[in-house]
Amino acid sequence: MPLPCDQARLRLSDLLAGALAPDDADGLDTHLADCAECREHAHAYCRLDRALGELAAQAELPQVASAIAAALAAEPRAEPARAPAQRSLAPARWLLVAAVLLLAVAVAFWLIRPTASPVVARVERVAGEVYIVSGQTTQPAQAGGAVRSGQGLRTVGEESGAVLVYADDTRLEIGPDSTLGELTDGTRSGTAGKRVVLLDGALSADVAKQADGQPLVLMTPHARVVLQDTRLSLVNSQEATRVDLEKGSAQLTRRSDGESVALSPGTFSIARSLTESLASLPMPTQFSRPRDSLPASLQRIWALTFAPDGRLLVTGGSQGQVRLWQVEAGADQEPVALDNTLHADVRAFAFSRDGKLLAAGGDQPPLTRVWDWAARKEVASLPGHRTWIEALAFSKDGKTLVVAGAHGQESSQIRLWDLERRQTRAVLDGHVGGVWSVVFSPDGQTLASAGRDGVIKLWDFSREQVRQLLLGHASEVYALAFSPDGSQLVSSSRDRTVRLWDTATGHELRCLLGHSREVRAVAFAPDGRTVASASQDGTARWWRVADGQELATFKLPGSANAVAYSPDGRTLAAAGWYKTVQLWDLPAE
Amino acid sequence: MSAGPAEVPEARLLELAKAGDRDAFGRALCPYLPMLYAYGRSLCADHHIAQDVVQQTALIAYRKIGFLFPEVDFGSWLKGIARREALSERRKAARLRPTVEEILEAVYDDPTPAAVGPEREALGECLKRLQGQAAAILTAHYFQGEKLTDVARQLGLNGNTVRTLLHRARLALADCVRGRLAPEHS
Fold first, then answer.
1. Residue A501: closest CA among chain B residues belongs to which residue?
2. Does domain A119-284 have CATH number 3.60.21.10?
3. Domains identified in chain B, total number
4. Which residue in A222, A554, B54, B111 has its CB near the most CB atoms, within 10 A?
5. What is the pLDDT of residues A358-412, one digit of tens each?
């Protein structure tokens, strides 16, 4: 019995969704072969399927692209290009060429009779997971072990790292989650100098004065740096390489166009695969002494925020307490703890616009509590979301609390809590994996969210629909903040970058490169002229929005998780794993 | 610092890629990733497999970039690799038949995206207008990579209902896009 057209079309739908049995596929194919009208329909239908697939791909791209980048990094160089004329070689000539080559290789092997590759450097120290990569094989690196010519090194995980020392005392300190390609020793192989390829991550090099006059050549996907008697650090991201020169001299060459700049001590330069100027810029001012260092005792700090009047600082951390600090009281103070705090770690805070409510979220039920700020009394406890809470935001009218998390069963859900009715009003479901950050635009009409999928979503809050996707980060996005006028959004990511976005067009305005590890927190200054970021690399950095220039680096005692501006914009607070809260007076721009 | 990547001609990027520049290869590949993903997805009906197809295609293309001759279009060449990879996956599922495959081939013949400019805008607008369970199913299937059986379980519906709703959602989308692109609408 012939298949009716509507049934055939339903089967095509099933087929595209992977839900059609093979026997039914036969019937569909027979019908399509006979029915021109359904073939035409099928063509349009498959085209729509393609368009939807390509739209969906935008969300998949960061993950796929980073997987491809990682896979490519492990690949040997591409096979060399061959001239088209070679295709016309007759098979007999191919055989002859192959035979001659084989003979040549055999003779070469006989003459050379290679022993083990020469040792290029020794591993002085390893932390966490560190591997020596040799072709397709990897083996754990050990302190005292050798890295031979042709081998590479990989550090895996947040706490990983390694130090390599060459025979001439040149030292390379490899950062976490970094990959070194093949190390070569040019003094033996006859090429100019030692060569190190940094495929991903960060390293610091302390290069001894070379007795043989041969320089060290550092390569990244974007840059080539030739250095001698130098101390520098180098950070690589997907788009760019930043080189900070502490002492000595170095020649930086952009690989995309061969443009070159001589770096002098105390300057840095960023090489991108772009045509912008490769200028040498003054190093940002380094600050290592904070105005105050508040003792958070045994607490790791996950979240902090200034109270709206700027007189109190609110911190939350690993002991479940929400603590209040007098900003002007200095280090010699005992913080006040809010009553009925959470049972485990406090991971996120939000103040309502009118400053009357404070919400805190954590990783054990009850996951979210809300306090009347003036009375310091709990007014609501929100159960029922099966994820650790990592992000909170009050709607402009204070009636809705947006709650999201990045671990657990419901971590891809963003919940909108109706605070009057004490129940979920809606669920925004659009991220793949967990959500690390939610923030409202100043006008309250746009909710921005971001998380593990590396995609930033701008939601039309009243319609509960995605308005814009911001694509660019190569990995998880941890933090977001709107500029005071709402025209820009700043984001920070595991990919070591901070990015500024135009919220109207969705275009990336700037990519700020400097942190050598993941950037956990970011904040916009109240005047909108600067942004601050805090990273696992143990620094907070202060950037000018207008040109992306890094203005200052604040050295912290350890990895940072949180950063905030005081409401008057004069103080920056940062905190993290190191159990103190640092307060810095911000210098003039 | 500038507002976005400068335009480097594809031919130049491919030259650099042939000389071993992975970054240039990545940049040349990037514009084709959505097409490759959608193609893998259409052929294999699974977003995880589609991701694998794209990744495998990228690796093979990088290894073989020396064999990409100047007269061959890079996008079509990539599609050819993706097709072979997807077909090898598809053999496991054995789902396509000659006529359907021919139609898909024609749809993916053009390496430029299926929806650009007004068509893409219209599709975006129409997606926003979809409502109810049909919208939930379509979103879960395309944008969260869920299998229909899982969607059915999550929504407490039977499999046939979910399949029918997905079909209706696609038809409604197609109608909506047609309507928005019709001359009287603009």
1. B3
2. no
3. 2
4. B54
5. 999 887 766 788 999 999 998 988 876 677 889 999 999 999 999 998 877 677 8
